[in-house]
Design brief:
Layout: H1 2-39, H2 46-85, H3 90-113, H4 124-144
Length: 152
């Protein structure tokens, strides 16, 4: 039973970190896109903001979560190694890894596809918010992913 817990807990924490990042990134993407429409003179009422947010959570967030999960798997592996080899806070390494993973994903998507697929990543504010969502995901991984002595 303890062996199963040792496998399940890290998976739950990793998925949670990924979901935090995907949900926050999706909401940031939605609100930045709606703000761009407002800047063009459109009127966006709260009910439309809510429907748009829900739509992006249902349609964009799952795809973004898959991409983020792949990036986090690589970035958190590096953070784990750096934490073991270089003295520094676990929270620092994982938070930086989360933000860096998102920045690397955005740059890779841009260079491979030749366009910025995620509209929020077309502005410095959008990139910053997406990277911040990654940093929060990294913090979740650092905070809740620590090995704990669990009594049987």
């Amino acid at each position: 039973m303890i062996a199963l817990r040792k496998l399940i807990r890290p998976a739950v924490v990793f998925v949670s970190a990924t979901l935090v990042t995907a949900v926050l990134g999706s909401l940031a993407q939605t609100q930045l896109n709606l703000q761009a429409l407002i800047d063009m003179g459109m009127t966006i009422e709260l009910p439309l903001r809510m429907r748009s947010s829900l739509s992006d959570l249902l349609n964009f967030a799952p795809v973004w979560a898959l991409v983020v999960g792949i990036g986090f798997a690589l970035a958190f592996s590096v953070a784990w190694m750096l934490h073991r080899w270089v003295w520094a806070s676990r929270t620092l390494w994982y938070t930086l890894a989360g933000a860096t993973a998102i920045a690397a994903i955005l740059m890779l998507m841009d260079s491979v596809l030749g366009i910025t697929v995620i509209a929020a990543a077309r502005s410095a504010t959008g990139i910053a918010l997406l990277c911040l969502s990654g940093a929060l995901g990294g913090w979740v991984q650092a905070r809740y992913g620590r090995a704990r002595n669990v009594a049987p």
